[in-house]
Amino acid sequence: MSMRIPLALPFAVLLAAPLPAVAPARLAVKPAGRVHLGSTGPREVRTVEYTFTNVSDAPIALRVGELSPGVAVRGPALEGPFAPGQSLALTLTVDPTDFVGHQARNVRLLTDDPAQGEYRLPVALDVRADLTVDALRKSLGAVAPHESPQAVFTFTRETGQPTALRLAGEVAPYLETEVVPGTPASRLLVTLRPARIPPGATLGLETLRVETTAPLQPAFTLYLDWKLHHPIEAVPSRVVFLDPAAPSQDLVLKARDGKPFLIEGAEMEGAGFQVGPIPGAAPEQRLAIRRTAQEVARAILVLRFRGMDEPLRVPLSYLPGSSPTRPEPVPPAASPSAGPPPPR
Q1: What's residue 23's pLDDT?
Q2: What pTM, to 2 d.p., does this model score?
Q3: CA angle, corner 76, sides to 74 and 80, nearest 5?
Q4: pLDDT value of residue 117
Q5: What torsion do the CA atoms of 60, 65, 69, 71 make, to the nearest 10 degrees?
Q6: Residues of the chain with pLDDT under 70
Q7: What is the DSSP string of 184-251?
Q8: Residue 17: CB partners within 8 Å, gap ≥ 6?
Q9: Closest C-alpha to 220, from 336, 100, 127, 132
Q10: What is the pLDDT of residue 115?
Q11: Cβ–Cβ contacts within 10 Å for residue 131, how many?
């Protein structure tokens, strides 16, 4: 409720004598207590009307003691004394310009009666951000190698002011970005090019840092996730040899549609590895990968399938002496600035 606080006394007086009793309030205030003005636009001025009533038997005058930033008061209640029993109005306005989020404001009012102390008018409001984006995180879902899906992030400025967008930092080489300016909305287009994704990478979470010319929203961090679904899935997606005593590993190939498939070619880009016999058509096949290298080696196994244009590329690595618990790092599927995803 509206609060009346006794005037401060000098510190020496407080030590010398007990605080005096607060005199009964001579002014009744409506509405009482904290007034919430709701959600407000970045330049939307809000008002609240108060009524002060002199409930005493003598005249009393009201004046402004202190105002919070962006607050103004005016009205008959400040223009002259109240006669006994008289009611006068006071209008409080709040200008939210240059503020964002939850805001609490107050007005401190004094009277010509020293025993009255002060009256306070607390208000609160939630100032909406001027520039917003339709989503901080988007998903491209399952992507086939021949597809080039696109995500669109739409930035809208409530005040209608033009806004420039700029990507800060580098993005992954398999992403193409474009900023399409507009008023009041601008768009960031992000296109995924699966053909540029490093072999062995099957999913990614991209982090995009966008800088803007909106004063109170100068930057946004956006997230984009994707999963690459080749018609034939390799398990594991990367074959890594760590133990010199283990000369071979199995590579399992599975058709996503559950139908038999046929391997028409298995080529090796690089040295240090050999592929065992090619099995016949089946929905799941197992290839033996043999290591011939005696020292660190890397290669790419390129598998081609009947009726499919896109080959499957599987990275092969031999890292003798490496800890079995720390295999070769997978090339990042996210952009260099990638970080943890925000809560959904």
Answers
A1: 80
A2: 0.77
A3: 115
A4: 87
A5: 10
A6: 1-22, 322-344
A7: SEEEEEEEE-GGGSPTT--EEEEEEEEEES-TT--EEEEEEEEEE--SEEEESSSEEE--TT--EEEE
A8: none
A9: 132
A10: 92
A11: 24
Q: Comparing C-alpha atoms, which of 95, 96, 161 is closest to residue 127?
A: 96
Cα 246 to chain centroid distance, Å, stands at: 46
The pLDDT, as a whole number, for residue 330 is 41
**Res 30: pLDDT:** 97
Specify burial of residue 92 (Cβ count, 10 A radius: 0-12, 13-18, 19+): buried
Q: Is 326 helix (H, G, I), strand (E, B) or coil?
A: coil
First to last CA, the chain: 38
pLDDT of residue 1: 39
- DSSP H stretches of helix in the chain: 11-16
Q: What per-residue confidence (pLDDT) applies to 291?
A: 96
328-333 LR contacts (CB < 8 Å, sep 24+):
328/238, 328/240, 330/200, 330/201, 330/238, 331/198, 331/200, 331/201, 332/172, 332/201, 332/204, 333/172, 333/197, 333/198, 333/201, 333/202, 333/203, 333/204, 333/205
- Residue 187's contacts (CB-CB under 8 Å, 6 or more residues apart) are 152, 153, 154, 155, 179, 180
Evaluate whether 92 touches 52 at the Cβ level (below 8 Å): no
d(CA 212, CA 239): 43
pLDDT at 323: 56
User: Is residue 252 a contact partner of residue 284, using CB atoms and an 8 Å limit?
Assistant: yes
CB 175 within 8 A of CB 305: no
Determine the pLDDT at residue 11.
Answer: 33
Q: Residue 325: exposed, middle, or buried by beta-carbon count in 10 A (0-12, 13-18, 19+)?
A: exposed
How far CA 334 is from CA of 171, 172, 194, in Å, comes to 8, 7, 13
